[in-house]
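FAQ: What does a ligand-bound record look like?

Like this one, built around norvaline:
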Amino acid sequence: MTDTTQGAVRHFLSLLDLAPEELDRLIDRAIELKRMHYAGEDFAPLRNRTLGMIFEKSSTRTRVSFEAGMTQLGGHAIFLSPRDTQLGRGEPIEDSARVLSRMVDCIMIRTFEHEKLELFAAYSRVPVINALTDMLHPCQLLADVQTYRELRGDIRGKTVAWIGDGNNMCNSYLNAARQFGFKLVIGCPEGYEPDAAILEGAKGCFEITHDPFAAAEGAHLVTTDTWVSMGQEEEKNRRRKIFGGYQVTSDMMAAADKDALFLHCLPAYRGEEVAADVIDGPQSAVWQEAENRLHAQKALLELLLIGNE
Ligand code: CP
Ligand code: NVA
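The answer part, i.e. the structure of the complex:
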């Protein structure tokens, strides 16, 4: 067996790695796994399976949802940080991927450069999951779409407003607009648009404006994210000034559809990208959204590890 396995293994580096029908079924399955969990059903298809979790950035939800998800499915997860593995001491990514993927059944990675994740995946014998890069955060979108479906039904044909930074979450919303068939209206400051290649791929599924109120008008879902993503801490003061007019407020929510939901991947900064009365208000579904990370990722693990067995 060669040590470059590109093409032979199914990875989840982007929402575009699954077909729209597979994504649709995955969301239904996440809802079913959630029901089974609440019913106390014993479902342990990943007995004796191990997930390696590499975190080069901080995490609360992603780490706990993957680890608890593996436990619930009968498997096990190992937390790997660059501080106490050879990953932080310069062992080549290719070598780390070759070694780890001979020991575990799936690897989840949170890192900076998306290319690093792609390189790891190219040398991995087992599925690799993107748990956030500077470019994309596809696992979060599974939970977001699940939450919308649970509360309002199919997101197909709906309008979603993205307010704020054209960051990894916004890029992922663009891919989701393509795959799930909704329209994304992005309200961002000039110079903070999402990735050009991702925009090109999502042609026909989005609009961009620099007026956040116009973006929110009539939207069925309003969503935002921090103005300062991990790795941008030095730009904090400048970003706070530039994004000052891009807070999701109750006035903005009033411009959206009357049944609009508010979602936020979290962690949230009240008084910056979102007003407290919005995130803590009746249209907000952020706690259900956070919980759904657990169920959506269980559906993803099931698909990648035993889906085709
Ligand atoms: N939303 C999200 O990915 O949260 P964490 O950074 O806590 O994992
Ligand atoms: N855009 C944020 C998302 C955190 C879950 C970041 O990359 O820090």
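Follow-up question: can I read anything off the structure? Yes, for example: The first strand starts at residue 50 and ends at 55.
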